Each structure stands twice: as structure tokens, then as C-alpha cells.
Amino acid sequence: MALTSGLGGQLSIDLGALARNWRALDKVSAGALTAAVVKADAYGIGIDAASKALHAAGARFFFVATPDEGMAVRAALPDAHVFILYGLYPGAANLYIRQNLMPVLSSMSMLEEWLAKCVERNEAYPAAFHFDTGINRIGFRLNEAGLVRERIEALGYAPQMVMSHLACADTPNHEKNRTQLALFGSVMSQFPGIPASLANSAGLMTGRDYHFQMVRPGIALYGGRAVNGRKNPMQPVVTLHVPILQVAEGRTGETVGYGAAYTLNRNSRLAILGYGYADGFFRSLSGTNQRPGGKVFIRGKLCPVIGRISMDLTVVDVTELGSDLPMPGEGAEVLGAHIGVDDQADAAGTIGYEILTSLKGRYTRNYVGDGRLPE
């Protein structure tokens, strides 16, 4: 565990809000099992704490990207059902079996290696099958469905689940959603009686036609926006405050930061924050005279970032605070009730996923709650 003085940024993670988000999604998906996607260190908030909180809320099925992430969930939750989204890593079948991890098989080579291990040990170890219905990433091709079915029928093997992934679910009216739904139906017809899963967070919110037997929410659990153009109904999970190191004066015509990218057009008060791109505050949140950047919340107002964000420092214009200036050591809210993950993402030209998974900076993590319902 990294040592910290507690004097830098403070990242607060509300495990109670995480649990409430899972329960809210579980109500929406009534009739389907609600899993939890905890890959990428649970979207940056910490896979151990997040998995335990989600389990306390009622989640029993977890999806991760890699075997290492799967082992982290297994260590935290001995009774969890853990799927490895990116399949069977070559030569790793014994590890999966030993750790009770289920690969999401997505190619004929993965399938053959897994079936060979089942034959070798005379046991049908569980796995899911992933079919590509139009995103062109990992997955069996649609024309392989018959071949996959014939291969497993010859051995009497049945998968735990058949899956696919939506490319445009964040835009509910996109025609590709309906196309993928139809194509997934054609895959399911090849595997009658096998449970199916298609919906991520956005798919879960799009409609029951996408729910099938299991839904796999990710970003919505962590308070991020899943569907574009709609009010985000999820509770924020992450709050980040970073220290103000100094409040300085700047004069009209002076420049701020590397590259002299911002020129002051008035006498200004500048707050220098101990926070930069090494802490996950993207350079694309820099403010220039041609383009506004990100904002932070200080003493009741949103204050703009000006100049280029550097590795360790960010400059914010606090002139509009008037005489109510912050003091060195005071915190500036980068993420929280007044400026959310998606607000910063929009300003950076990215998505909330990237903001969350970049929260690996030099700050103290504080976990609040444990996911259980209050008595």
C-alpha cells in the first residue's frame, strides 16, 4: 500500500451510493439477473472495496476484463460467479479452473483449448460464449455459430450463457441497436435453452427487449452517464478535492502556464492547485483564450481552469470570488455534487469512463459505507 501524508488530494468513494445504484438498476431489470462489471479496478474506485459493497447490495455475478482482475474478485468474494470478459488467455486454463473463473470464449482457438481441458479432466467447466453482432471487436463471427454448436454438441457441452455487446446503446434510437438485437436473436436460436445477455448500462436503460436473462451494468453503477440526451438518474459515487497551494495575482497582458497559451485580459487572482495530469486531470481540460477548459468548484462558485495543465499543477481563475478568496491548504472540488464526472468529461472532449478510470493520482482514498442496507 502506498504511503500518504493525507495532505494532498482527497478522493472520497461512497460505497453506499454504489450499492444504491446497483439496487436501482436491479429494480429496472426485474426478471433478469443484474450482474456488476468491475473491470479496470472497478472503473477506478477500487475493485476490492467495490466488489464487497456490490455483493452486500445483492450482486452475485461479476464481470472483469483479465484473469488478474478475476483473482482479485475471487479473493474478496469466495462465493461470487466471476466471468473473464476477454476470454481464455492462451495456456491459462488451469489457472481459471483453480480460481473458479469462467472465461467468455470468443474464438475457435479459445473454444478448442477450453474443451480440450474439459476432456482432459473429464469435467464440463463453465464458460460463456461471446458473439460479435456488429461492434467488430472480440467475439465469434455470426457465421461460426453453427460450427460452435456442432462442436459442443459432439462433446455434450453447454455454455453457461451466450452474450453479445451493443455498439450504440448510449443512443437509444440508433438503428444499430435494433439490428444487433435481431442478429443476437439469430444466434440464440442456435443455442435453445441457454441463458442470454446483451445489455450494458445503456442497454439496460433502453428497454426490456434487451434484458434477456442477465444484464451487465458498468458505468451507471459508478454514477456515470450511460445514455446521451437524458438526465442521469444515478447517484454520484466519487468526490475529489485537491489542495490549493497558493493564491497569486496576475496582471493584464501576462501569460499563464507552459506555452503562454492563456493571456490575462484583466488583473486577476489565480489559485494554483496541487493537481495535474499525473493525477488524472487531462491536459485537454486546459483553458486557452480560444477555448474554455475545465472548471473546479471553490467557495460556492465554478471557477475556470486557465493555461495549460501541467504534470503537478493547475491554475484556476478565482477573480470572480471577489474578496472571498480561498486560503492555502483549502480544498477545491474537482468532482462532486457541484461538478460531476460527466461535466469534466464533456469539457475534456471525452467520456465519464475515461475520467473515472484515470483516478490513480497522488491522493488519499476514503471509503464511505459498505453497501449494506441501513438497519
From TrEMBL:
Cofactor(s) essential for the protein: pyridoxal 5'-phosphate
Keyword Isomerase: yes
CDD domains given in the database record: PLPDE_III_AR
Molecular function in Gene Ontology: alanine racemase activity
Residues annotated with N6-(pyridoxal phosphate)lysine modification: 39
UniProt-listed Enzyme Commission number(s): 5.1.1.1
Ranges for domain Alanine racemase C-terminal: 237-368
Catalysed reactions, semicolon-separated: L-alanine = D-alanine
Residues binding substrate: 137, 311
EC supergroup of this enzyme: isomerase
Keyword Isomerase among UniProt keywords: yes
Pathway(s) served: Amino-acid biosynthesis; D-alanine biosynthesis; D-alanine from L-alanine: step 1/1
Protein name (Swiss-Prot/TrEMBL): Alanine racemase
